[in-house]
From TrEMBL, chain B:
<dbReference type="Pfam" id="PF00005">
    <property type="entry name" value="ABC_tran"/>
</dbReference>
<dbReference type="GO" id="GO:0005524">
    <property type="term" value="F:ATP binding"/>
</dbReference>
<protein>
    <submittedName>
        <fullName>Branched-chain amino acid transport system ATP-binding protein</fullName>
    </submittedName>
</protein>
<keyword id="KW-0813">Transport</keyword>
<keyword id="KW-0547">Nucleotide-binding</keyword>
<feature type="domain" description="ABC transporter">
    <location>
        <begin position="43"/>
        <end position="291"/>
    </location>
</feature>
<dbReference type="InterPro" id="IPR032823">
    <property type="entry name" value="BCA_ABC_TP_C"/>
</dbReference>
<dbReference type="GO" id="GO:0005886">
    <property type="term" value="C:plasma membrane"/>
</dbReference>
<dbReference type="InterPro" id="IPR027417">
    <property type="entry name" value="P-loop_NTPase"/>
</dbReference>
From TrEMBL, chain C:
<keyword id="KW-1133">Transmembrane helix</keyword>
<feature type="transmembrane region" description="Helical">
    <location>
        <begin position="96"/>
        <end position="119"/>
    </location>
</feature>
<dbReference type="InterPro" id="IPR001851">
    <property type="entry name" value="ABC_transp_permease"/>
</dbReference>
<dbReference type="InterPro" id="IPR043428">
    <property type="entry name" value="LivM-like"/>
</dbReference>
<dbReference type="GO" id="GO:0015658">
    <property type="term" value="F:branched-chain amino acid transmembrane transporter activity"/>
</dbReference>
<protein>
    <submittedName>
        <fullName>Branched-chain amino acid transport system permease protein</fullName>
    </submittedName>
</protein>
<feature type="transmembrane region" description="Helical">
    <location>
        <begin position="22"/>
        <end position="41"/>
    </location>
</feature>
<keyword id="KW-0812">Transmembrane</keyword>
<feature type="transmembrane region" description="Helical">
    <location>
        <begin position="47"/>
        <end position="65"/>
    </location>
</feature>
Amino acid sequence: MSYYDFLFVIEVLVGGLLSGVMYSLVAIGFVLIYKTSGVLNFAQGSMVLFAALTFVSLVERGIPFALSLLITFAVMVALGFTIERTVLRPLVNRSPMTLFMATLGLSYIIEGAAQLIWGTQVHGLDLGIDDTPFEVGGILISSFDLLAAAIAAAMVAGLSAFFYWTRIGLAFRAVADDQFAALAVGLRLPRIWGTVWTAAGFVALVAGLLWGARLGVRFSLSLIVLKALPVLVLGGFDSILGAIVGGLIIGASEKLAEVYLGPFVGGGIEGWFAYALALVVLLVRPSGLFGQKTVERV
Amino acid sequence: MIGASLGAAAYERASEISAILAVANPVGDRRLARLSSRPDVVLALSGIGISFGGVKALSDVDLEVEVGEIRAVIGPNGAGKSSLINIISGLYHADRGRIAIGGQSFSRVPASRLARLGVARTFQNLALFGGLSVRNNIACGRVHTRRASFVEHIAGLPRARSEDAGIAEKTDQIVAFLHLESVADRLVATLPYGLQKRVELARALVAEPKLLLLDEPMAGMTATEKAEMAGFVRAARDRHGVTIILIEHDIGVVMGLSDRVAVLDYGRKIADGTPAEVRADPAVIRAYIGTAEGENGEDI
Amino acid sequence: MAVQALDAARLPVDWAKLVQKLALATALFVVAYGVVPAYASGYLVEAILLPFLALSLAAVGLNLLTGYCGQLSLGSSAFMAVGAFGAYNFNLRVEGLPLAVTMILAGISAAGFGVVFGLPSLRLRGFYLAVSTLAAQFFVQWALTKFGWFSNDNPSGVISAPHLAVAGLSLDSATGRYLLSVTTVMVLTALVWRLVNSATGRNFIAVRDNETAARVIGVPVLRTKLLAFAISSFIIGIAGVLWAFTYLRTVEPAGFNLDRSFQILFIIIIGGLASIRGAFWVRRSSLSSRSFCPGSAHSCSAACSIRAFST
């Protein structure tokens, strides 16, 4: 392998890792909810879409950037809170599969609502981030991707701080560890679930802005949920660390596969490659890389 | 699709074979070989040990169960009773030791072959099939005797029909034996707890096992229900000649029902003998009374 | 899956019920083979009955796997695609193959795929399995688009239904296609009905309700799961043939997308998991409700599905 080939591999790898961060961004929203309530929230993708669409529509109506951001945040918090109240609370104690299918239905409702409120046209979203690639040691790096990664890192740090150093964060971890025990010591589960859905709404907002800026705000944006699922499976549904590492692994290997494997099979493999990769990992570790092993109690 | 199910069958077969081959391991101790060749020993455990995450749940447990006896295993909470039953039924795999069932010796009992080895069990927490009627739940207990394929069942071919008829007859016998006639066609999930426990016993008995493992069959029952259940357990042994291992918290019931009692404490067997011997054993008294200071005092 | 399989736990012979059932079956036959072919308009048959029959059959197939055996699959339309493209190729490449044989071979191909993509179920549970079934969805769609061979090198991967005939009788008319469809659906549904009430069906339910207990009493769990995948995919594959040959007549791989899979899933959720009749009721009601929903029909059935849970 020549020096330039090597540089090219590195470039692909870095590009892949950075886009992997974008996957992790969506996946983290899933993990937050899964950890505390055992629900795989399929509607996370449409929440991302809803956030991006709301924000971009407000900006287009001449509302200042910061205010739009604030309003959208409020809307997302309200949305998360409402979902928790109206859909999930009545279904408490149902099987995880039932809850999953409810969120699957919910994703269509949110998309339909977004369509009704904001219309169906594609919007461009400019966050004012300069996207000229810059060069480091012969490798081109997208500055947008780098910034997105930085924002994602900041968000993870912020969430971690929240969950480690605040009272409600401590309660969150207690619930994630053992719901019944948490209930027994008097933690108010509904309040924690409300908080978690709010946090998930916030994550959806961040992901929506970054993904929207990258792909344009369109309805296919909700399909990024399909990019996040293999990441979740690979990392384990209940691990934030897993979501990050899983995102990086999938992002990097997907890009490498596209470049080096794609030409042999006619390309277009990005639709299923991540799933195949996740499946191989699962066959070795059925609960993902960082997922909690469930001990069978008989 | 037939090929694939053959593949799965081969896979199951292979895991069974490897489990049996493990027997040929020369480490197997002579005592076990001697015991398992004795026709009057249904089950022999030797040197069983298992740990969960560094915590020893069982260490160096030996146990021989003779044909036709009701053998109780008692001990305080967390003594390893359920682990022991789960190891015998192949749901847990022991880290050390061997298990001989009816003359065949294993280091890991193949759970999928348990029924064909002549072992049936009930579960501490109900493990019934909630979507099936009582009768169908019980009929499932004889699934290991079925040979007809799904095609034969759909087409209603003679083998499938005679299988169904044979199993229906056995099921009816057990339903009558355990007085379940009045609820036989109800969905099992709609029955009260005590009756569900009885259905589980029925599902185990219909398999006509040589060895029956009962994991707390009377837990959570009223005194009347307990007495009734004890009667069924004794009748099962007397009429069907089945050997029974019984895990139970209610020591009063255990002492009246069992021929011999093994006592576990902190994963070790501290006593083994007739109810009278065990009751008088100082180690047992220590284990129960000694820890009773402020703990969940279990009446002895 | 807390939903109980009431159908599988019915009482033994009850004469009044038997007579009632016979009357119902007779009425069904009269309507299916007498009234509909004679009086139904072309629009009713083409736009409502044909998709209704195909999707109902797919729902019956998925219900077997998800409702009865407890294995959630999100990739049903991939198996419809395998069935449709399989039938197209068997018909194209084997001279003079009877239609029934073509359909059965297509179903077997789908069953083969089902077993392959069902293999993870031997090790994975719950959501991990559900997500892994998405691999089938995306892989099949990709392969059918990418490899021209499957669509006889049509540039956009589109296949068209061949001439349909049984024993020399042409079934190309709307009524003919309806008769083919309704007969297939009735035969397969009857077989599934027998299956779920047999020992095999009870094994499915046992694996769903308590896998550990099922294994201990001697249910061959691995074989049962794979069998559920195989039979379910077989039926969904044939539903795909009906969808492609009798309803749309011209289909592309993209027609068998994730939305279609979810649509089938919604049908079985609203109709009640582990209920065969449910598959048909819902399909009918969601077709009739479509005209009232300005947005996508999906939001509508999604709303129904949530309502169904809350009650």
